[in-house]
Amino acid sequence: MQDLRGKTMGGHSKRSLNQVNFIVRHHSATEEGDVFKFEDYWKSKGWSTGGYHEVILRDGDFQLNYDENVITNGVGGHNTESYHICLVGNGDFTEAQEKTFKERAKKAMNAFILSVDDVIGHNEFASANTSCPGINMDNVRARLKGSSNQSSDSDLLQKGDKGSKVEKLQNDLLDAGEELPQYGADGHFGDETEKAVKSLQRKAGITIDGIVGPNTREALNNQPSSNHDLPNGIYREGNRSGAIKKIQEALNAANFKVGAVDGIYGPKTKDAVERFQKVYLPYEVDGVYGPNTKAKLEEVL
Q1: Which of 56, 177, 182, 286 could lock 62 by a disulfide, CB 3.0 to 4.6 Å apart?
Q2: Rounded CA gap, 181 and 159, in Å?
Q3: Hey, what domains does the chain have and what are their CATH numbers?
Q4: 73 three-state secondary structure
Q5: The Cα angle at residue 60 between residues 54 and 66, in degrees rounded to 5
Q6: pLDDT of residue 269
Q7: Residue in 224, 200, 219 with CA at minimum distance from that of residue 301
Q8: Among 150, 109, 142, CA closest to 22
Q9: What's the number of CA atoms in the CB half-sphere (13 Å) around residue 130?
Q10: How far apart, in whole angstroms, are the C-alpha atoms of residue 156 and residue 163?
């Protein structure tokens, strides 16, 4: 740890620790740098305080820039309720960084009495329009939970490969709406599978090379699921949980758009539920997700 508290810019706006609801992951979108390099950018924007409480360097060392009760500038409109951790990199992070992030995120979870579902990416806020943090946060949260069955992003798949990994890829492509009309999920990475991968890459706006690496896997992971396992219970504005993400995905799939799938039952999600209810449950328009809304949404999907 490089303890830089008191040596970084600003840091005078404070909050109580019970105001913190989220631990937010960021990336720097640069191949190198540290908090002092980033300060040049922050100062050019006229900020009095920097963006991140912590910066994790490429070798796994981290810079502790501000105390937990300092309000920094990580996500507009959400800084009072967020603790910000940035990894140096542009969608590509070292094993040492991931190890440090896991340790630091768990420490922050204990400090703020938060759960893994409260560890979110910058782009999971409804108001955010960014690719930051450059990684699929579902995989990050799974690692924090200790899941050992996550596929390795370091395994490349390309034309000529065969086996169960290729078959899983093909099924994922089909779930994402891509076509494999001649051979389907046969476990052989041929011309047809390469064409489907390139189609997915084109739609995702990433390099079109027909090779399945970390960016293509992330694009696949970001596809809405065709199997909407909707939660039971009652959810309303102000709630936050992983279950709400499933509700938001289902509403988006039913064309009652909520915007970003962030697990926060905010005004946009409430509005989407109300619009859905006006069409399918006109005598129950309250913006609250309950058993009747669940049943009707399942029916529509």
Answers
A1: 56
A2: 17
A3: 2-145 (3.40.80.10), 164-221 (1.10.101.10), 229-287 (1.10.101.10)
A4: coil
A5: 15
A6: 94
A7: 224
A8: 109
A9: 21
A10: 13
Number of other CB atoms surrounding residue 62 within 10 Å: 21
**In the chain, at which residue ranges do the beta strands (DSSP E only) sit?**
2-3, 22-27, 54-56, 62-64, 82-87, 119-121
- Percentage of residues of the chain with pLDDT beyond 70: 95
Distance between CA 240 and CA 107 in Å, rounded?
21
Average pLDDT over residues 133-161: 74
| Tokens standing for residue 162 | 């065969």
Q: From the CB of residue 291, how many other CB atoms can be counted at a distance below 10 Å? A: 10
Its pTM stands at 0.52
Enter the tokens of residue 78.
């959400």
Task: Indicate the DSSP class of residue 152.
Answer: P
Digit-coded pLDDT (tens) for 211-229: 888 778 878 876 655 456 7
